[in-house]
Amino acid sequence: MIAETLSLAGEKIKLRPFTLEDAPRVQDLVSNWNVASMVARIPHPYPDGGAEEWISGHRERRAAGEDWPFAIEVGDKLVGAVGLSRTESGPFEIGYWIGEPYWGKGIASEAARVLVEFAFDILGLDHLVSGHFKDNPASGRVLIKVGFLRSGEEKRFCLARGEEIDCITLKLTAEKVTR
Ligand SMILES: CC(C)(COP(=O)(O)OP(=O)(O)OC[C@H]1O[C@@H](n2cnc3c(N)ncnc32)[C@H](O)[C@@H]1OP(=O)(O)O)[C@@H](O)C(=O)NCCC(=O)NCCS
Asked: What global pTM score does this model have?
């Protein structure tokens, strides 16, 4: 049984569970077209109370073994989110967003590496999947650097854009992780 309060440490980041106190900060960081338009499930405009509702569901989904969402902290400041979610077809998918003021500092790359190690070393998973919109090469780079390999292409609905967007899908097996 993995503790609900489990935190994970990288070199310059910490991953910890969200609390409701994080809601205003999350609300602020995701109410940004440049973030919402690059992920599948963040609406834009972001509704009032959206972050609180999202965080409120974490405990139950974590307890059910469906989701492992973590807040990314740098120097005690919440800068983004990274997590694993079970897909309908079975494998866990890694997803993340970083608040725009913090882009380009290696934060997503480090968060992805820490979460991938958690997935394989602690959860004992044998593979992970992920995907990024074709017009989001920075996210592709984050995934490739940790060892993900391209597995195909598909269309994915983007809530913020309100349409299906071309998406590159990737897969990572435990032995391919770049540590
Ligand atoms: C994509 C995102 C997570 C990247 O976060 P970040 O903390 O800035 O990422 P990092 O700094 O760790 O690494 C970004 C990498 O992409 C590269 N990159 C940045 N812009 C790029 C571009 N236009 N084309 C190709 N590579 C690019 C960077 O050079 C870096 O690679 P490097 O370390 O080899 O130099 C962040 O921009 C974000 O949250 N965007 C909105 C939400 C999102 O896209 N989530 C992912 C959905 S799949």
From this structure: 0.97
